[in-house]
C-alpha cells in the first residue's frame, strides 16, 4: 500500500477505517507506521477519532482484575539486577568493619531510613445519620478497615445491616460483611484494599445479607474515606 | 461532587475528574509514575470495559490494558488538548492495543454471542453516549443511517469486528459490507461537519 499516492478522499477513507478498526493487520500496521511522518494522514485520523470517540461510551464499564496495576508497574520498571549480597558480605566482613569506620555505618543507616517504605497513610470517615449525628467511625489503612459504632442502634426488626465499599472508578460495591449486633467489624486487607476517596456505605438487607451480592435495600449511612492528616 | 443513586449503587465522582486528567498526562510525560497510577485508578474501569468489549476475554483485555498503559507512559507528551479530551485519547490508545491483540489472534474471538449488536443498546449506555454534546450529535447522525449500516459501524468500533465478521453476522457479501460501511462513514462525516 503506497500511502503517499492516495487522493485526499482515499486518505480520509483509510483514516476512517483505521479508526473504526476494520483494516486488516498489514494495512493497520502500514497506517500506524506512516502516521508520525504523514501530517495529513495524522490529521485525518485525529478527526475521525474525535468524531467516533463518543461510541466508546457504549462499552459497559467493567472493573479490571485486581493486580493489573501491579503487572503494569512491573512491566514499566523491569526490576534492576541488584547484587546486594557481595556488597553486604563485604560490609559484614568482621575484618573490614573497623576499616570502613563510622561513616559507612552512618551511610548505611541513612540508606536504611531513606529506603524504608513510607508509613502507610491512615484514612478515616464518620458516617452520619440523616440528622447529621455521628453514627459510625470507619478507620482504614493498609492493614484493613475497621468500623465501630458511635451511637449504637440495632438493625430494623428482622433485617440486617450490611457494610459495603465502593473504590473510586468501580461500578459495583464490594460487600464487607454484615454488621454484628455489637456494632464492630474488622475487614482484612485481602477483602478490600482501602484507598482515599473510597465510598463506605451501610444498607438495610434481608437477614443473612443481600441475596444478589449488591446492595438491595436503602442506604442508611454513607461516607468517603479521606486521609487522616497528622496521624 | 456529583452523585447518582441507583438501586443502592453509588455512582459518584468529583466534577473535576475530566479536567484533572490533562495535568496528570503532562506529569506522566515528565516521567511521573504516580500520575500514571492516578490515571489508572480513575479510568481503569471504563478503559477495561472498552478493551473487553473488543476482546470479550478478561485475560486478553488485561494484556491489552498493560500494553496500552505502556504506550500511555511513552506517549503522554503527544496528547494534544486541541484535538480532543484526555478520555478520548486514552480510550483510543486502549482500542488500538485491543485491536492489535485481536488481529494478532486472527480475530479468533467468538462473535456468536447473542448480546453482540442484536439486542437494543441498553438505555444507560445511550445515556453515557449522550453525556456530551459530541455524543448527542453523533447519535443524531447515526440515526440517519440505514439500520444495517449503523450496526456495522457499532459492531466494528465497539466490538472490534472485521469486515468479514460483520458480513458473516449481517449475512451480507463481504464487498457489500465494505462498501456500506465506507458509505456510512462518509455520510457520518457530512452530517457531523
Fold blueprint:
The complex is a heterodimer of chains A (231) and B (193).
Chain A: H1 8-20, H2 25-34, H3 39-52, H4 68-76, H5 84-92, H6 94-115, E1 123-128, E2 134-141, E3 144-149, E4 160-166, E5 174-178, E6 184-187, E7 199-205, E8 219-224, E9 226-227
Antiparallel strand pairs in A: 1-2, 1-9, 2-3, 3-6, 4-5, 4-7, 7-8
Helix pairs in contact in A: 1-3
Chain B: E1 2-6, E2 9-13, H1 17-29, H2 33-55, H3 58-75, H4 86-104, H5 123-129, H6 133-143, H7 147-159, H8 163-170, H9 174-192
Antiparallel strand pairs in B: 1-2
What distinguishing features does this structure have?
heterodimer, A: 231 residues, alpha+beta, Immunoglobulin-like, 3 domains, five-stranded antiparallel β-sheet, four-stranded antiparallel β-sheet, 6 helices, 9 strands, elongated, B: 193 residues, mainly alpha, Rna Polymerase Sigma Factor, Chain: A, Arc Repressor Mutant, subunit A, 2 domains, two-stranded antiparallel ribbon, 5% strand, disordered N terminus
Structure explained in plain terms:
Chain A: Residues 103-219 form the Anti-sigma K factor RskA C-terminal domain. Chain A: This is Anti-sigma factor. Chain A: It comes from Falsiroseomonas oleicola. Chain A: Pfam families: RskA_C. The complex is a heterodimer of chains A (231) and B (193). With 231 residues, chain A is an alpha+beta fold. Chain A folds into 3 domains: 3-58, no CATH class; 68-116, no CATH class; 123-227, Immunoglobulin-like, CATH 2.60.40. Chain A has helices spanning 8-20, 25-34, 39-52, 68-76, 84-92, 94-115, and strands spanning 123-128, 134-141, 144-149, 160-166, 174-178, 184-187, 199-205, 219-224, 226-227. The longest helix of chain A is centred in the middle third of the chain and has 22 residues, at 94-115. Chain A is elongated, with a radius of gyration of 28 Å. The relative contact order of chain A is 0.10. Mean pLDDT of chain A is 78; it is low at 81-87 and 93-105. Chain B has 193 residues and is mainly alpha-helical. Chain B has 2 domains: 17-109, Rna Polymerase Sigma Factor, Chain: A (Orthogonal Bundle); 110-193, Winged helix-like DNA-binding domain superfamily/Winged helix DNA-binding domain (Arc Repressor Mutant, subunit A), CATH 1.10.10. Chain B has 9 helices and 2 strands. In chain B, strands 1-2 form a two-stranded antiparallel sheet. Chain B is globular and about 50 Å long. At the A-B interface, helix 1, helix 2, helix 3, helix 4 and strand 7 of A face strand 2, helix 2, helix 3, helix 4 and helix 5 of B.
Amino acid at each position: 500500500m503506497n500511502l503517499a499516492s492516495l487522493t485526499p478522499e482515499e486518505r480520509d477513507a483509510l483514516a476512517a477505517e483505521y479508526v473504526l478498526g476494520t483494516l486488516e493487520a498489514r494495512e493497520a500496521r502500514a497506517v500506524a507506521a506512516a502516521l508520525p511522518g504523514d501530517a495529513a494522514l495524522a490529521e485525518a485520523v485525529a478527526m475521525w477519532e474525535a468524531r467516533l470517540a463518543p461510541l466508546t461510551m457504549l462499552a459497559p464499564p467493567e472493573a479490571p482484575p485486581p493486580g493489573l496495576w501491579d503487572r503494569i508497574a512491573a512491566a514499566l520498571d523491569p526490576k534492576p539486577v541488584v547484587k546486594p549480597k557481595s556488597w553486604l558480605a563485604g560490609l559484614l566482613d568482621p575484618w573490614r568493619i573497623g576499616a570502613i569506620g563510622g561513616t559507612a555505618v552512618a551511610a548505611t543507616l541513612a540508606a536504611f531510613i531513606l529506603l524504608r517504605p513510607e508509613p502507610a497513610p491512615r484514612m478515616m470517615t464518620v458516617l452520619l445519620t440523616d440528622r447529621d449525628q455521628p453514627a459510625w467511625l470507619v478507620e482504614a489503612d493498609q492493614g484493613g478497615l475497621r468500623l465501630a459504632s458511635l451511637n449504637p442502634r440495632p438493625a430494623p426488626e428482622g433485617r440486617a445491616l450490611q457494610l459495603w465499599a465502593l473504590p473510586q472508578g468501580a461500578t459495583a460495591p464490594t460487600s464487607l460483611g454484615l454488621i454484628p449486633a455489637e456494632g464492630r467489624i474488622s475487614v482484612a486487607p485481602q477483602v478490600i484494599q482501602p484507598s482515599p476517596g473510597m465510598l463506605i456505605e451501610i444498607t438495610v438487607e434481608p437477614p443473612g445479607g443481600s441475596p444478589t451480592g449488591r446492595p438491595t435495600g436503602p442506604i442508611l449511612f454513607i461516607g468517603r474515606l479521606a486521609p487522616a492528616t497528622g496521624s | 461532587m456529583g452523585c447518582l443513586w441507583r438501586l443502592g449503587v453509588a455512582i459518584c465522582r468529583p466534577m473535576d475528574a475530566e479536567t484533572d486528567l490533562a495535568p496528570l498526562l503532562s506529569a506522566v510525560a515528565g516521567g511521573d509514575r504516580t500520575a500514571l497510577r492516578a490515571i489508572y485508578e480513575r479510568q481503569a474501569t471504563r478503559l477495561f470495559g472498552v478493551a473487553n468489549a473488543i476482546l470479550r476475554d478478561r485475560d486478553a483485555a488485561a494484556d491489552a490494558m498493560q500494553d496500552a498503559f505502556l504506550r500511555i507512559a511513552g506517549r503522554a507528551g503527544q496528547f494534544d488538548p486541541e484535538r480532543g479530551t484526555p478520555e478520548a485519547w486514552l480510550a483510543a490508545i486502549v482500542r488500538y492495543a485491543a485491536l492489535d491483540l485481536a488481529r494478532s489472534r486472527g480475530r479468533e474471538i467468538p462473535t456468536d454471542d447473542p448480546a453482540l449488536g442484536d439486542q437494543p443498546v441498553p438505555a444507560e449506555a445511550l445515556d453515557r453516549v449522550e453525556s456530551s454534546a459530541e455524543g448527542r450529535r453523533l447519535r443524531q447522525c447515526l440515526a440517519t443511517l440505514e439500520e444495517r449500516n449503523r450496526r456495522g459501524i457499532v459492531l466494528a468500533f465497539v466490538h472490534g469486528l472485521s469486515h468479514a465478521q460483520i458480513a458473516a453476522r449481517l449475512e451480507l457479501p463481504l464487498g457489500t459490507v465494505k462498501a456500506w460501511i465506507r458509505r456510512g462513514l462518509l455520510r457520518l462525516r457530512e452530517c457531523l461537519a
